[in-house]
């Protein structure tokens, strides 16, 4: 079974779940998960976790993401993108400077109301299920943060923007909100995710390329080992006589391992004496112990 993360290029028309299903078929293994939904119309980076790395899915979902989107001004749809039903059209009266100011005004924190066509659940029902049934319910605004927003091209009524943002940000809704600010409405015409954490679109692989690499026997070269996701963390290696502690998921004392580390360094990568990656441990400085935060070794020995 393969263990690690692979940088998949999700193509248009596929859901994120479609990608996982196809990867299960390509690799002939069930333990596969994705790291954050991309709409079917969107394309780009979708890190896929294999085997033990599925424990990373929630951690990668929280990472900063970067998108390139085309905003179409003057049109409002029920899905907030051009795949939906047009609800309203309005001529754009603003000039380039006013459009630029409106786009850049979203830099920083803002409260975003999630779209009805989303996988968020309210009382156990996904919002898009309610939307498809013709129901619209009140949604609470959620705080999101736009770390960076740039205008790449402006050919009104279209504006190409690059956005780096926090977890939970809907680029469709950002486009809608920019349109509202300009009093003409807006929606998203296209979306390319160019980055998730340290995974970039230039390094991503289409499903057909992954299949080809599998047939050539070279796919392993493109699977990032789990511990590489934590390369910025310090490292501890267990003394052989204490391997059993970490193999069983127990706490251990710092002097039972070797490595340049102090409790003030925070979380640490832990390996057994044979250099098999165990997981991430965090310090309990009061008791001079390290306890497991996220363990990737499968079961006890």
TrEMBL record:
The keyword tRNA processing applies. Residues 172-230 form the tRNA pseudouridylate synthase B C-terminal domain. GO terms for molecular function: tRNA pseudouridine(55) synthase activity. Keywords: Isomerase, tRNA processing. InterPro entries: PsdUridine_synth_cat_dom_sf, PsdUridine_synth_N, tRNA_psdUridine_synth_TruB, TruB_C. It catalyses: uridine(55) in tRNA = pseudouridine(55) in tRNA. Residues 24-171 form the Pseudouridine synthase II N-terminal domain. Pfam families: TruB_C_2 (PF16198), TruB_N (PF01509). The active site is at 39 (nucleophile). Its EC number is 5.4.99.25. PANTHER family: PSEUDOURIDYLATE SYNTHASE TRUB1, TRNA-PSEUDOURIDINE SYNTHASE. Belongs to the pseudouridine synthase TruB family. Type 1 subfamily. Responsible for synthesis of pseudouridine from uracil-55 in the psi GC loop of transfer RNAs. This is tRNA pseudouridine synthase B. The lineage of its organism: Bacteria, Bacillati, Bacillota, Clostridia, Eubacteriales. The gene is truB.
């Amino acid at each position: 079974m393969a263990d690690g993360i692979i940088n998949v290029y999700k193509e248009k028309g596929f859901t994120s779940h479609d990608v996982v299903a196809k990867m299960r078929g390509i690799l002939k293994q069930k333990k596969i998960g994705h790291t954050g939904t991309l709409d079917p119309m969107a394309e780009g980076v979708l890190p896929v976790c294999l085997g033990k790395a599925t424990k990373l899915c929630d951690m990668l979902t929280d990472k900063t993401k970067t998108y390139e989107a085309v905003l179409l001004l003057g049109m409002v749809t029920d899905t907030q993108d051009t795949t939906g039903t047009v609800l309203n059209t309005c001529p754009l009266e603003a000039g380039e400077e006013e459009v630029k100011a409106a786009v850049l005004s979203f830099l920083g924190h803002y409260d975003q109301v999630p779209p009805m066509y989303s996988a968020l659940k309210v009382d156990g029902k996904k919002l898009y299920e309610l939307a498809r049934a013709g129901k619209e319910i009140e949604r609470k605004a959620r705080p999101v943060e736009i770390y960076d927003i740039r205008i790449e091209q402006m050919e009104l009524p279209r504006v190409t923007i690059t956005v780096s943002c926090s977890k939970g940000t809907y680029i469709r809704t950002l486009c809608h909100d920019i349109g509202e600010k300009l009093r003409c409405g807006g929606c998203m015409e296209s979306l390319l995710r160019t980055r998730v954490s340290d995974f970039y679109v230039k390094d991503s692989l289409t499903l057909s390329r992954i299949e080809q690499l599998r047939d050539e026997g070279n796919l392993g070269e493109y699977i990032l080992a789990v511990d590489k996701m934590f390369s910025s963390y310090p490292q501890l290696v267990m003394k052989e006589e204490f391997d059993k502690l970490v193999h069983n998921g127990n706490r251990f004392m710092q002097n039972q391992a070797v490595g340049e580390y102090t409790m003030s360094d925070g979380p640490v990568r832990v390996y057994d004496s044979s250099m098999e990656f165990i997981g991430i441990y965090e310090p309990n400085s009061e008791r001079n112990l390290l306890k497991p935060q996220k363990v990737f070794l499968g079961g006890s020995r």
